Every structure is written in C-alpha cells, then in structure tokens.
C-alpha cells in the first residue's frame, strides 16, 4: 500500500497542501513503515497562475499509489485516478503524518474507486496467464493427436 499526500514540504511534518495541482511536493508514504519519498511537483504554471498538472498523475501511478490525500483535486485528475483504481480522500489541514495516521485509524472518508488498482493488475496478470495456458494446452493436444495416429 502506498499513500500520496499533497504537501507543502518534503517530510512527514510538512503541512498538507490543499491544492493538489500546485503543491510543491507529493509525499509517497508506506503506512505500515512510515517510510516515504518526497517527489517534487514539476507542474507548469501559466501567467495567470493556473497549474497544468498533466504529467504528474501518471508518474504517481507509476509509483504504485493506492490512495491520494489532498484538500482539493480537480475533475480531470480525479477522473484519471478514479479510473485507475486509486482511492481519494480529502483533508485540508494537518501534517502528512497526521493524515496517514487518520487513514490508519479509519478517520478519513475515502472516495472509493470502482475497483482497486491492485485487483485490476491481478486480473490483467491472470488473463495473460490464462491465454498462455490455453495456447500451451492446444500445443499439447495437437502433439497428442499426432502421436496417436
């Protein structure tokens, strides 16, 4: 399990940043060990101060994030995470450590994804294995037919 928290700093004592797209850092935290990685938010900001946060959702998905905690997540990023099977929780105050502790104690309201990402990945792996086994079985049956002639 990995939790991504939008943060104003690069450690567990950093305050949660309520602006997902414009936060300075994403902290990726393992809630079991509290080990974390600080990932700088490399978004682009236009002259009006609007963030273009197109690249970082994919990079967070590539890190295996299962849950995102932030104060506010825009509709495009919400949809991307939701369809990828990543749960979302909103929290506007406190530290990253407090947010993770709230999650662990069941104190966060989770907006569940339709199917958790890890289940989607397992389904995909099992489908590929099933296809491989069917092909192997066809080869075995073909060889048995040849030997029986």
Going across the major beta sheet, what is the strand order? 3-2-1-6-7-8
Principal-axis shape: elongated
Percent of sequence in beta strands:
15-25%
What is the typical, i.e. mean, pLDDT? 85
* Structural class by secondary-structure content: alpha/beta
CATH topology of the largest domain: Nucleotidyltransferase, domain 5
The rounded distance between the terminal residues' Cα atoms is 55 Å
Whole-number total of structural domains? 2
H-E order: EEEEEHEHEHEH
- Share of residues in helices: 25-40%
CATH class of the largest domain: Alpha Beta
What is the annotated CATH architecture of the largest domain?
Answer: 2-Layer Sandwich
Q: Could you list the spans in which at least 5 consecutive residues all have pLDDT below 50?
A: none
Radius of gyration: 21 Å
Overall strand count: 8
Query: What is the number of helices?
Result: 4
Quick one: biggest sheet?
A: 6 strands, mixed
Identify the CATH homologous superfamily of the largest domain.
Answer: Dinitrogenase iron-molybdenum cofactor biosynthesis domain
Q: How is this structure best described in words?
A:
The structure is a single chain. The protein is of the alpha/beta class and 149 residues long. The chain is 39% helix and 19% strand. It has four helices and eight strands. The strands form two sheets. The protein has a six-stranded mixed sheet, with helices on both faces. Strands 4-5 form a two-stranded antiparallel ribbon. β4 and β5 form a beta hairpin. The mean pLDDT is 85.
């Amino acid at each position: 399990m990995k939790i991504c928290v939008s943060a104003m700093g690069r450690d567990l004592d950093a305050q949660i940043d309520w602006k997902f797209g414009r936060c300075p850092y994403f902290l990726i935290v393992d809630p079991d060990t509290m080990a974390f990685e600080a990932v700088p938010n490399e978004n682009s900001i236009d002259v009006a101060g609007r963030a273009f946060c197109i690249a970082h959702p994919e990079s967070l998905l590539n890190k295996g994030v299962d849950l995102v905690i932030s104060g506010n997540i825009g509709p495009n990023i919400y949809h991307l995470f939701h369809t990828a099977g990543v749960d979302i929780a909103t929290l506007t105050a406190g530290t990253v450590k407090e947010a993770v502790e709230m999650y662990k104690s069941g104190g966060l309201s989770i907006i569940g994804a339709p199917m958790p990402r890890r289940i989607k990945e397992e389904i995909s792996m099992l489908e590929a294995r099933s296809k491989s086994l069917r092909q192997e079985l066809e080869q075995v049956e073909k060889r048995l037919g040849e030997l029986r002639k």
